[in-house]
């Protein structure tokens, strides 16, 4: 019981901020234009109607699937390329600046380029998410590979550890905290780019449903879909946080602090 009370007290400031934002939203709706800027309660009511529609859940599933596939590709490619670059001082020094430049390009700006390359809106979405989310994973993997201590290098050399064992038993565990940080950054980028690709590229998902609702002047549904995307983002972020704690359970940052 005491734990529950402590949890409620901890969450109280967050709840108050949420209530304040909802109240400000409703007040702003009455001042601006309630038809194009519905109140918070109207948006929630519209969301309640949407969750009873099978098309809504198809859209949510398409968005979640695009996020998962794109992020998985980003992790596989980003970690592989990043570790390969990071293990070479020459490659790391010569490519990091260029990778930082590529990372600074907004993923949304590449939508029509990828649509022309892939043709299919679905394949475009996967490729775009993988590319945009792949750069933070790749760069963090480079930093992780570079962070491997000289002691470990000397240990591997002294005991004649082969390249494969050196990669999977020394380099990868050493770089894992950096990689997980990159994945956490990539997860939010992946969802943002994913919904944008659905909106601008007409790929199936929440983004396309927003376009359809806006075209029909169903603005309460538009804001309801935006709320749904936000809730999905919170859930996916919680999943990535759980992955972080599970994968790095051995890391000092995930150990309980002794009182």
Verbal overview:
It is a single chain. This protein has a single domain, classed as MetI-like fold (Orthogonal Bundle). It starts with a helix and ends in a 12-residue tail after the last helix. The longest helix is centred in the C-terminal third of the chain and has 39 residues, at 163-201. The chain has 10 helices and no strands. It is mainly α and 259 residues long.
- Main sheet attributes: strand count, strand direction, barrel closure: none
Structural class computed from helices and strand pairing: mainly alpha
Task: Tell me the name of the CATH class.
Answer: Mainly Alpha
Order of helices and strands: HHHHHHHHHH
The 3D shape can be described as elongated
What is this structure, in a nutshell?
With 259 residues, this protein is mainly α.
Salient structural properties:
MetI-like fold, elongated, mainly alpha, 0% strand
SSE layout:
Layout: H1 2-31, H2 40-50, H3 54-86, H4 89-103, H5 111-118, H6 121-146, H7 150-158, H8 163-201, H9 206-215, H10 219-247
């Amino acid at each position: 019981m005491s734990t529950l009370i402590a949890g409620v007290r901890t969450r109280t400031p967050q709840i108050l901020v949420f209530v304040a934002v909802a109240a400000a939203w409703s007040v702003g709706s009455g001042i601006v234009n309630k038809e194009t800027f519905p109140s918070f309660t109207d948006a929630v009511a519209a969301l309640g109607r949407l969750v009873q529609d099978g098309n809504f859940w198809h859209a949510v599933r398409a968005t979640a699937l695009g996020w998962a596939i794109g992020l998985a590709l980003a992790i596989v490619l980003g970690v592989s390329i990043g570790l390969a670059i990071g293990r070479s001082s020459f490659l790391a020094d010569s490519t990091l600046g260029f990778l930082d430049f590529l990372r600074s390009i907004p993923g949304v700006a590449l939508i029509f380029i990828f649509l022309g390359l892939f043709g299919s809106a679905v394949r475009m979405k996967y490729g775009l998410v993988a590319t945009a989310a792949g750069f933070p994973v790749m760069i963090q993997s480079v930093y992780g590979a570079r962070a491997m201590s000289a002691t470990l290098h000397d240990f591997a050399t002294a005991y004649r550890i082969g390249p494969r064992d050196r990669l999977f038993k020394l380099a990868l565990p050493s770089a894992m905290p950096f990689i997980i940080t990159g994945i956490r950054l990539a997860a939010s980028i992946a969802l943002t780019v994913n919904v944008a690709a659905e909106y601008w590229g007409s790929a199936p998902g929440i983004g396309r449903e927003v376009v359809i609702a806006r075209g029909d002047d169903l603005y309460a549904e538009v804001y309801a879909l935006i709320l749904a995307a936000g809730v999905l983002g919170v859930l996916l972020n919680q999943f990535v946080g759980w992955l972080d704690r599970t994968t790095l359970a051995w890391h000092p940052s995930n150990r309980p602090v002794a009182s």
